[in-house]
Amino acid sequence: MGGKAGARFAPVILAGGSGTRFWPRSRRARAKQVLALDGERTMIQQTLDRLLPLAAAEDVWVITNTLLDETIAGQLPEVPRGNILSEPVARNTAPACALAAFLLEPAAPDAVIGIFPSDHVVKQPARFAEVIRAGVELAASGERIVVLGVPPTRAETGYGYVELGAALDSAAVPCGGVQARRVKRFTEKPDRARAEQFVASGNYAWNGGIFLWSARTLASAVREHCPAMAPLLEKIAAAHGSADFERVFAEVYPSCENISIDYAVLEPRSAKGEMESEIYCLPADFAWNDLGSWAALHEHLAGGTPEEVGPVNVCDGTSGPAVIIDATGNYVYAPGKAVALLGVSDLVVVETADALLITTRERSQDVGKVAAEWKARGRGDLV
Prior knowledge:
The protein has twelve helices and 17 strands.
């Protein structure tokens, strides 16, 4: 099996981000992943909790930024401080993922790297562990790339989609008893009509942003598909552990292309065709949610599908039970306050010490525009 019992497994937690989608609770220096949105543990602590049964703490890496690194180091004392790397500038997911591959390739080319966003929710950790072990086993068996595909529950236009191909013969390909399928292609953020077609077909999954590959496989793919980026990351990796590392990182990393791993590696690799690309999909059927907006948090805390929880009021962190009269489908965060809802529907109300957000669940995806407007007005203290 993968994980601690098989191939060396090195999870990489991506923990950058600008902290805008959950404004005003999140800010640049306290982005979503360092907040406790779902229980007492922060999102990044929950991410590590899911991974430690599968990997040694010294094999865990975190890629973040200088605004968050000390907070993250304090929240994750198990992870060696030297494994928490701060990007000098944001360069999207491809350079961050690839850097991990070039760091590990010289000494551990067969180690399987797992890429994990730091701010997702998983309600079924035992199934998560089972699927990740299967993915590690599959990724370790050759020049193979493994993606996790979330079974779609709606025609979501904010996610990427994975078109599924032929099912694998589990007797011929090692995948831990979890059903794997070949990948035909990736489609980023389709419009509403295409998203509805994808979901209706039953042959697509959401791209959950979780990938597994050996250090050698990823490094080779970067050399093939991003030839300008590869030598830059090799130079940074060569300096790791030396007194020059921070200087080299700061000088060289900004020259890397600002591109996602999906566009940089997965899409060109999948263009080779279903049978040649060696990209496989395992089901992320462990009650996944990326909590991408206040509306998504409302849905998650209410405990059901959008249709089921639409009328439910969620009062988060408030003082005692709220008074609710003729009100439906609202989300309120007002810590320590007594809350009353009267004759309102589908609102999002979030109060912090220095800010108040009032919007609707429908418009909650646009909260980043509010942070951008404060920045444009010179109110850096609010972002």
